[in-house]
From TrEMBL:
A Pfam family: CCSMST1
Highest taxon in the source lineage: Eukaryota
Protein name per UniProt: Uncharacterized protein
InterPro entries hit by this protein: UQCC4
Length: 144
């Protein structure tokens, strides 16, 4: 037997259907005598807490699951961090970002100089690095 209940505007409906029946539902409607809202402080929900829900859903974890996960993770980390040889990708990732992206350092220096000037900070080191960068590239010092 299948049962479902609905409640709309103080009218409660309870419908039932036999297991083998596909279309014959029997519904009864009842008018609720207490159509006032239910106070939270007096309901069962007021005494419910998240800890109660967690206690109700105890999971059976085998004792060896934690041990096997810890050993597997440890073996993977030992291999990945110590035993593995460096490859081309590792060498590429070890290069500084300014070497891999052209003109990035120059634009970052210009932004840093502008920020420092706006906030009244010293820009001497930043301007020296910008001049040094242009000398390495063989270009003229830009106007800021």
């Amino acid at each position: 037997m299948f049962i479902f209940q609905t409640q709309e505007q103080g009218i409660s409906s309870r419908c039932t259907r036999a297991k083998l029946s596909t279309s014959s539902w029997r519904c009864t409607k009842e008018e609720s005598s207490d159509s006032a809202p239910i106070k939270f402080s007096t309901s069962k929900a007021a005494s419910w807490s998240l800890a109660n829900a967690a206690n109700n859903q105890k999971q059976e974890i085998p004792w060896h699951q934690t041990l096997s996960v810890a050993i597997s993770t440890g073996v993977f980390l030992i291999y990945f961090l110590y035993l593995r040889e460096e490859n081309d990708l590792d060498l590429e990732l070890s290069r500084p970002l300014f070497e891999r992206v052209p003109h990035l350092e120059e634009s970052q220096l210009k932004i840093a100089i502008k920020y420092a000037q706006e906030h009244g900070k010293d820009t001497k080191e930043l301007e020296e690095r910008l001049v040094q960068l242009h000398e390495e590239k063989g270009t003229d010092t830009p106007n800021q």
